[in-house]
Every structure is written in C-alpha cells, then in structure tokens.
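Workshop exercise sheet. Pairs work together: one partner reads the sequence aloud, the other fills in the structure field after running the prediction. Swap roles for the next sheet.
Pair: D.N. / O.F.
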Amino acid sequence: MEQLSAGKKLDQAFDKLGEKKTLSFELDLDTDAASLKALDAKSEPEPGDEMPDEVAKLIGDAKITLTVQSKKPLAESGEKDLVGMAMKISSPDGDLAEYRMIGDYVYLRADTDAIGRLTGTPVMPADELPAEAGAFKDVLEGKWVKYGIKEMKKAGFAGQEDEDGPSPAPSLDAKTQKKLMKSLREVVAREVKLKTADGDGDTEHITATAPFRTLMTEMIGELRPLAKDLPPGMDLPTDKDLKDAPNAKVTADFTLKNGELSEVNVDLAKLAETAKVKKLGLIVRMSDGIAPTVPAGAKELDLEGMMQGLFSSSELNEDDFADEEF
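Structure field:
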C-alpha cells in the first residue's frame, strides 16, 4: 500500500512540473576534490594525465543552472514552443560561463581568466588578438556577446535548412513517447522500492532504492527498439557496458513541498566500489525560475567575417601551427 501511495505521489509531483511554463533546474555534484581524485586514480590514467587539483576542486564546487521557458505547459511543448533558454555554470568565486537563447539570438559570456587559472591553461590576452577578431575580444574580457542563429548557420557552424542540408534530427512522436513512458514506469514500479517519510512542516520525503545495473539494463532494454528514433549522438550503452556496471543499490531522496517536487538527492557513493570516496552524490533542485532576459550591451559577433579574418590574418602563420603547445 505504501509503495502504491508513494508512487502515485511521485507521479503527481512530476505532472505538476509539466504544468509549468518556466522551470529551472540546479545541478550540484555533492562531493569533494579528494573523492574525485580517488575516482580518477581508480581509472588508472597515464602518467601526466592525472586530474589536476584545480580541476577536481572546480568540478566539486561548480553548479549548473538550466532554465527553460515555453509558450505552453512544458509537458505539451515542442521545440518550436520554447521562447527562452539559459544555462549558467557557477563556482563559489562567481559565474564561470553563461549562455542564453532568446528569440533569434544566442547570448554568451565567460570568465576566461578564472577558467584558465582553474584548468591550468591560460587564455590569450584580448589585446594580443588581431583587429579582425572584433567582438571576440569581448568574449575574452568576460563581456556579453551575441550572434544570430541564422547567421551561425550561414557561416557554416550548423546544418543548413535546405534540400542539400542534413535531414532533421529524428524525434519520437507523441504516441511513441506515451508508450515509452508507460514502459519505463512499469520498470520503475517493478524494480524500485519506495518509502515515504515526513519532513518539516509542509515537506515530505520519498526514498527510492534500486540495484543500479538491474534498473539500467531494463530501462535500456525498453529504449533499444526506439534507438533509430533517438537524437543523433545519443548512443545507448552496449550489453557489455551494462554487464560491467556495478549492481550496488542506489538510493534517491525526493523532496516534495506542498506536493511539488523541489529536490532530488541521489547517493552514488556505492557505485565507486573500491575507490576511496568520502561522499559522491548528485543533487537536482527545481524551482519556478526566472524567465531569461536579453543582457544589455551585448556586441554582435560577425562569425563568418571573424573566421575569415582570423585565418587570413598575418598574425596566424605556419609557425603558429608548428608550435606543439598551440
């Protein structure tokens, strides 16, 4: 009875997310640099290829926020209904990179100095770029820039929308999507053990526990007949990949506030097997979010002109490309 009740509550919580027109997700890896270094060591990297301390700290501290805005409820939306999208990567020291897509334009900015320090790969100073770089200098200075989606395609950075261009990416029709979701829910109901627990005030917790390999094998099995309809580049794990995956039990804690899903905390530590990790988890927080807005003062990148100018510039010659460090 508790399994049925908890499952129904989760279904209703996910349905409420689908009713929203603007939604934000914050992804936070709940771990530390020492645990990440231990996982890296278990993979037996080649000498010199070990994960640097700065990168381990960056991954452990970074948060990713994704916001989508649609004209319709998200559960009913297709790609053409999305009117705004934003993604931001941040660290305790500030924002590292941000991307927004609003209307016909993409806006972006990045703290290239901070990224260079953290990764140990310094970025070329903006004043060393040739004049042809134009607004690209603003990118290196951490300022907002923008480019038109149509211009990006015209410059050859994306597929052309004509008869000579690539075919549209395959997608699942509504009937197939519903059939797939029904199958996946049946797998979850069969393999995942649910348990409810009261929280503070209007908060409730539902924990879901399942053997990782078994759950993934059955879910991938439901996806395989639809592999040809999945987006390009979305390759499903092979049977061998799944056999090599640990079958330890993984627990996810779902936090519901007034019946709405507000946070999911997945404990992945047992999947590390023999690696000495203190903690390894993934936290996803949901909120109504703020609709993405057009940043002020963004200069437009002339992608086609910039690339032609850079590659024809005397600043870039054969000696530059002969340098192994380039």
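Discussion prompt: The chain has one domain: 2-322. What would you look at next?
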